[in-house]
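User: Kinesin light chain, Rhizodiscina lignyota:
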Amino acid sequence: AAFWKQGRWNEGEELEVQVMDTRKRVLGAGHPDTLTSMNNLAFTLKDKGECEKAITLME
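Assistant: Predicted structure for Kinesin light chain:
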């Protein structure tokens, strides 16, 4: 959230991908915490102007 508030999208994206991947591995793809991570990453991608990637992630 700190990177997002500062507009540091690339750094935020890197951390969000790491968190999402870890949660998928540890908790599973359908776990609510994993889904939250996916949602956070999708919003970062949207804010970076990568809307197609964001949509794909949310589908």
